[in-house]
């Protein structure tokens, strides 16, 4: 039996191309200043055909946000669940977040600047996703405080410091430029972990452990858009 219209692989590929093109246009011109006709010209579709793929301009904005948050949240949950020191998991989560930023600069720009254009259930869903990611970060920071590695500090403030250091990277990052996600994560986490460290606490060798994880578990990539395939032979 043939697939229902709109559910075939060609449809999905074309739809994702439209979403990515829209993200580029919105990042360059602004969401409000970009019309459906502008987008239609960019992807070579008349308005009616374009709506077949996107439903509405607001729905397109939702899809751009989801393109970032859905895989990032999924990967963040998996990283947080690893059997590893909380500082190592913070380092892995940091690199995962920065990998998303480097891969989806246009989407991140729209995500940060235009999410307030949403309303109702769509805005509630997006804000819920942001809040969940913050809870995951806060949970790791709290673990490190409870085990005595980090000094006592307000969890909310510590979380904001982590997020502020990472989330503004999209404003100046250049894929293929001087720094990549792994390099920035190493520098960011060195600054944060030393600053958060409890007096007299011996910090684990986070970089060595993060490097070992990436080397020994290639089946568990940090890129949120890559699938995790657990290797039963991995130790």
Offer a quick outline of the entry.
The chain has helices at 9-29, 36-43, 47-54, 57-80, 86-103, 105-114, 120-146, 155-167, 181-196, 206-216.
Q: What pattern of helices and strands is seen along the backbone?
A: HHHHHHHHHH
Main sheet characteristics: none
Globally, the shape reads: elongated
Average predicted local confidence, pLDDT? 91
Gap from first CA to last CA: 44 Å
DSSP strand count: 0
Radius of gyration: 20 Å
Helix content: 55-70%
Overview of this protein structure:
The protein is an all-alpha fold and 235 residues long. It has helices spanning 9-29, 36-43, 47-54, 57-80, 86-103, 105-114, 120-146, 155-167, 181-196, 206-216. It is built from 10 helices and no strands. Helix 1 crosses helix 4 (57-80) and helix 5 packs antiparallel against helix 7 (120-146). The model has no long low-confidence stretch (mean pLDDT 91).
Summary tags:
235 residues, mainly alpha, elongated
Helices and strands in order, then pairings?
Blueprint (H helix, E strand, L loop, with lengths): L8 H21 L6 H8 L3 H8 L2 H24 L5 H18 L1 H10 L5 H27 L8 H13 L13 H16 L9 H11 L19
Helix pairs in contact: 1-4, 1-6, 4-5, 4-6, 4-7, 5-7, 5-9, 5-10, 7-8, 8-9
């Amino acid at each position: 039996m043939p697939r229902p219209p709109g559910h075939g692989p060609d449809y999905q590929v074309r739809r994702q191309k439209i979403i990515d093109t829209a993200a580029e246009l919105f990042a360059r011109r602004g969401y409000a200043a970009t019309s459906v006709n502008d987008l239609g010209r960019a992807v070579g579709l008349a308005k009616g055909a374009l709506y077949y793929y996107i439903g509405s301009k607001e729905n397109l904005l939702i899809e751009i946000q989801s393109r970032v948050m859905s895989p990032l949240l999924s990967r963040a949950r998996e990283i947080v669940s690893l059997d590893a020191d909380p500082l190592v998991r913070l380092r892995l989560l940091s690199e995962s977040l920065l990998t998303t930023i480097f891969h989806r600069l246009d989407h991140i720009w729209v995500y940060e600047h235009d999410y307030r254009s949403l309303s109702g259930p769509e805005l509630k869903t997006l804000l819920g996703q942001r809040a969940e990611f913050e809870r995951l970060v806060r949970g790791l920071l709290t673990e490190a405080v409870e085990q005595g590695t980090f000094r006592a500090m307000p969890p909310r403030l510590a979380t904001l410091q982590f997020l502020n250091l990472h989330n503004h990277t999209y404003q100046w990052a250049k894929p293929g430029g001087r720094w990549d996600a792994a390099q920035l994560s190493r520098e960011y986490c060195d600054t944060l972990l030393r600053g958060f460290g409890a007096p007299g606490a011996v910090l684990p060798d986070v970089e060595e452990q993060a490097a070992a994880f990436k080397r020994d578990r290639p089946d568990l990539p940090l890129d949120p858009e890559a699938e995790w395939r657990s290797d039963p032979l991995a130790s």
